[in-house]
Amino acid sequence: MTNPEAKAYGWVTMLPYYAIFGFFLGAITLLDEGLELAMGIHCANNLISSLLITSPNGVLKTMLF
Q1: For residue 65, is pLDDT > 60?
Q2: Greater pLDDT, 48 or 60
Q3: Among candidates 20, 52, 26, which has minimal Cα distance to 39?
């Protein structure tokens, strides 16, 4: 909970997001019997978040202006 997003929006908002996404990826790992799909979804989530949903409070500063 030391990410800038968690500090800006509060742990009450961010912890459920992190937990639900983690349980979702864990379920995919168990159902698929491999890490590849979960790792791909995590990578896609990070890429989309950093390029499309970027904010000044984010860890990665990807804004062009």
Answers
A1: no
A2: 48
A3: 26
The answer to whether the beta carbons of residues 1 and 15 sit under 8 Å apart is yes
Q: CA–CA separation, 61 vs 50, rounded Å? A: 8
**Hunting for tokens 């989530």 — which residue is that?**
45
H runs (alpha helix) in the chain: 4-9, 11-32, 36-52
Q: What is the Cα Rg of the chain in Å?
A: 14
Band of pLDDT at residue 63, cut at 50, 70 and 90: low
Which residues lie closer than 8 Å to 41 by C-beta, 6 or more apart?
25, 28
Q: Taking the complete model, does pTM exceed 0.70, yes or no? A: yes
* Assigned token pair, 29: 């790992």
